Predict the 3D structure of the following.
Amino acid sequence: MDAFVSQKFIKKSLATAVMMGLMVNYVSASTNENSEQEVVVTAEFSNPIGPDFGYVGENSMTATKTDMPISKTPRAVSVVTREQMDDRASVSVADALQYTPSIQANFYGEDNKQDWFVIRGFNQANDGLYQDGTRVDSAGFYSYQVDPFGLERVEILRGPASVLYGQNPPGGVINVISKRPQHGGSFGFVSVDYGTNDRQQLSLDLGSDITDDIAWRLVALGRKNGTDVDNVEAERIYLAPSVSVNFSDNTNLTVLASYQKDDSDPYLQFLPMEGSLTENKNGFIGDDVAIGNPDYEKFERTQAALGYEFSHKFNESVQFAQSVRYSQLDIDLKQMYALGYAQDFGLEATRTNIVRGLSSEEGKSKSFSADNRLIYKFNTGKLEHTLLSGIDYRWLDIKGQSFGGRVLVADGNTPIKVPTPYPGIYLDTYNPLFNPYNPSYTDNVTLLDGATFQPVTDTDRETTTSEKHQLGGYLQEQMLINDAIAITLGVRFDNTKSTYENKSTNKKQVVSNQEWTKSAGIAYIFENGLTPYANYAEHFQPILKLDKNGNSALPESGKQFEIGLKYLPQSFDGSFNAALFQINKENMATSDAAGNLLQIGEVENKGIELEAVANVTSGLSLVANATFMDSEIVKDNDAFKVGNRPMQVANTLASAWANYRFFGNSLEGLAVGVGGRYVGETYADDTETTKVADFTLMDATVSYTINNMKIQIAAKNLMDKEYVSTCGYGNCFYGNGRNVIASLSYAW
């Protein structure tokens, strides 16, 4: 952290500490003075972060940052438990969410650079991912990827959440909960995996007490695997030590650290639309073809984080909690992608060869986040209050090197004459043509300037810096009337600043925004387990652009209206939810004919969600959901887009998974799981001119457990269906083929 940031951070941290201290003193004094009988101290504080048993998660900190049960929370909340992730052999966070309503997960196929989500029709790339309640700050290629083996559960809050989390996309929040020490004994788990494409993995999860008040845990794995694409491989090392200290019955500190190193080739293959979605005269490009050069491409990432969670209960009604994390990420990326056919560039008369571009990024990202919360529980007459006040701060700093303009790839050193705009004049340069229908690769890769076709090297890259700050304060009141009516009210103020500077060209952009956001919800809790609810929520997200007068762009903003019905059956452990929602996203950036910023874009998404999660018996667990949505571009500078569905957004999503374990007969120890996923048709552009077909995939798992040993075989895309998962911005992406993972594990 440089001197400027350090001074700025120290000042804000001191201000935060002082403000929190004042609030603590005020609330403590209020609870100790001899007041009238309308103030009565009640309630106990729970820790709803797992571990869970089965598929049903009853509590979540994500929706309210308090211990309010999901059944009494007037928001749509889902939990993917550790057991569900294990039963389906989830290999990424996106993979873990493929049986969750309103989420298009892995819509580019499996990616090792980051996890991709569309929630309620809004893209969450680089935003909306949290770990243990604090933001996983990513930007562009500087994206963290959390390995699911290190997680206890994944929580999903659907819809705008800016009141508690600040700048955030309107689709919702995905909050992954880390494994952490468990006081009260020792445990262990070790697993060896082998699977498709020579996947090899060794996993370890150990924990124990040091003393009655100190416990530790170590989660680790090593993995090496290939992919569906020839010669594209990956390696990962992951370590996550943690320690928990109970200073007293009322005070706990949990320190969480992680280290992850990826030494890989980039997974995603950016294919031309012609030859993947539609047929070329040469047929279709094989799903095993590397569109780039695996010997040249690389994706090396090292990410590390150190943080803590601190909680202190002053008395039975007042609790303070703080979550802090510092993260650092180093990347070195070189990846080729299809720009178009050579004929479109005037380089040949046939549609056989393509021209490829290069994405290149090398640099470092540093981020810091702190969330301070004070919770005050009290009664006034028949009203039970949970008052939450908080101050959070986020900081992100990125410094990297990349090419400022388009860079082409010449795979080899064969000379070619490239036509210029001037008749009869050609440039002698290297051959940028590549035949994806009959690919060949060399050890000689030359990079070419996209405008001049002349060679460039890494020394021609530009140095850029990016810095973001967010300081926010929020207040939330939860009222429970006669244990039947739950009301939630929230308000927040944020001060944000984003700075982007190109050190090589001396261009700088600074955007500052101050924003208020609000939320409100109400639920009625019937004794039979039914809970109808309604909510209103707002969101905002800054745009790092300036208008033609040099003024900061307004942040994207919007609101949600939602009504729903929750049901907790009394005869078995289950949760059923239905929700109707409408979300508007406004102030979206578009451009006029001169390229100047316009903010007249608006998207409106309406939909219905249905979700069922149940541990029906001790042996049968079920997950089922469906989403039907109408996503529409309401306003845009381009009249041809108005009324259309945004690209890559599916109008229908559905999935179901069942897992049955045999007990009390000759098949005891055997478990069988089977599931199906449906993703409706999407469009490759905002003008609805190119359609991507819908697809259905099947998954299955079989396992056998004897004593503490378990053998499991899990298959994704069981029928090995070939399909295009999505298209956008001129490129298409094949979905994953059949992937089988066999594992042998031992737990104690």
